[in-house]
Specification:
The chain is an alpha+beta fold. The chain has 7 helices and 7 strands; from the N terminus they run αααααααβββββββ. The strands form 2 sheets. It has a 5-stranded antiparallel sheet with strand order 1-4-5-6-7. A two-stranded antiparallel sheet has the order 2-3. The longest helix has 25 residues. It starts with 12 loop residues before the first helix and ends with a strand.
Length: 212
């Protein structure tokens, strides 16, 4: 997601691939160096905050387990609509390739491996696939919660040879039976905003939120 100066043609993908490979095959060394208890507290379980130097679990749950999982389900539908053979396999392949490329870009300078990439690729990405493959989970989120996303419109800048406007914002809205025309919402990814939505007379939703 973040290239040096956004110059995608100048990025060292070989170095990034090495970083990701070492993050996957050298798990024991990375966990020992980071500290197993610290890793579990900061990266895996919601047991730390940003103020104490932790809180890395927040994007892991938001962007990998939930936002990534909803993208996976949408990919299945996209492949099914186009009669692609084995749409679930195609969705898994696309999902894993996208997340691997994301880690290649984010961790290109950590050629010996990075515990963040380890956690994402070996725990939260597989967990997203398992979690969202459940019909019960899909029914719950389809009835109680509303998920949608707004990806940016990627643009190639010339002659700078850079890619711009690449981001992804996921919005989650909570339905309530008592107040059917009101929703609580939050966003994650490109922005972090929380607020409330109200349905107008013509089914238009008006939202008021604050965040960063």
């Amino acid at each position: 997601r973040t290239f040096p100066d956004h110059r995608v043609f100048d990025f060292d993908y070989g170095q990034g691939t090495k970083a990701v490979w070492n993050s996957v095959v050298r798990v024991d060394r990375l966990v020992r160096q980071y500290g197993a208890s610290t890793w579990l507290k900061y990266e895996v379980f919601p047991l730390s905050s940003k103020s104490e130097g932790g809180g890395q679990w927040v994007p892991n749950y938001q962007l990998h387990l939930f936002a990534g999982g909803t993208n996976y389900i949408r990919l299945i539908s996209w492949f099914e609509q186009r009669d692609v053979p084995h749409p679930r396999v195609a969705a898994v392949t696309t999902f894993l390739a996208q997340h691997a490329l994301n880690e290649i870009v984010e961790n290109g300078s950590y050629t010996r491996g990075n515990i963040d990439a380890t956690t994402d690729l070996l725990i939260f990405d597989p967990a997203a696939l398992l979690f969202w493959n459940s019909d019960r989970v899909q029914r719950f989120f389809g009835s109680r919660l509303e998920f949608t996303e707004w990806p940016g419109q990627p643009s190639l800048d010339l002659p700078g040879r850079s890619i711009e406007n690449t981001f992804e914002t996921t919005m989650v809205r909570l339905r309530t039976q008592r107040f059917p025309n009101w929703r609580l919402f939050t966003t994650m990814g490109g922005s972090y905003v929380g607020g409330i939505s109200h349905r107008g007379r013509d089914s238009t939703w008006w939202s008021l939120g604050a965040g960063a």
